Amino acid sequence: MGMTKEEILLEEINALESEIEQLRDENLGLRAELSSLKENTRKPDEAKAMIAEMLIAEVGKATKKFPIWPTDPLHAVAILNEEVGELNQAILQTIYEPEKSDKYDVRDEAIQAGAMLIRFMMSLDKYNYSCSIQHEQEVPKQSSEGEEG
Ligand SMILES: [Mg+2]
To answer: What's the CA gap between 147 and 62, in Å, rounded?
Structure first.
């Protein structure tokens, strides 16, 4: 039972139409993928501008809350180190205790640490590099010392 020329053409048309539909679906999928990639991948300049904006905002917030800053550079760096320690903890928790911290906490702590570095640098020509008041310490006695002596 052979097909007429018309039937063969109709079948070919149907096959082509379903192929077109499939390509259209693939195209839609690719478009969605592309637009989500565009959302997630900012241009480096945009990212830099965003980070700079966040740092400046954090410097403003922190300076408003604590307007004074140590003139002793070791006290000043201790404040920076405290924030770096919190960044360290956020990263460790994101890895090993993910219920306590996530990548957004890491970002926030990085911004806080960066802001403290900026505050540290803002005072570079105001630091006083003098020794702290110091005192002597006794050498601790070891239990073996008594026996030998
Ligand atoms: Mg912090």
So the answer is: 57
